[in-house]
Design brief:
Length: 158
Amino acid sequence: MKNLVLFFLLITGGLDLYSQNVSDSIEIRISYGVQFRQHGKTLSPREMLAIMKVDNTAYSEMLIAKSKHDLSLLFGIPGGFLIGWPIGTMVAGGVPNWRLAAAGVALTIISIKCTLSYTRHARIAAGYFNEGLRLEEGAKTSVNFGLCDYGLGLTVRF
């Protein structure tokens, strides 16, 4: 019996152990605005919407966020153009039309409000999505013994 235990300890002592922790959760980073990342990749609103199809609550919240993001672009791009045109005219030596710049400022303010609303709704959607993942993870546990990438091994997933 001692020989069997000693043999088992010698074999298991020489094995390499590998572990991985792949999380499907969406992390929120704040740098020059808000970034949503999953597996190290920055997600666009369209990608987040596609990922969240599995969770109805998160998906409906992300639909609202995506519409706010689209509105932000719809108002922000022309607003920036209307601000930049009179400034460019002034720099070139012409007479700027400041009414265009005022309209651009108004559109930019609307765009900023839409962006803030997008951020709020997208954060809520990411929270719902991540919470749903935590609830699912508790139910999944599997133990497999067999061939792995590095030979014969025991795989425990939870």
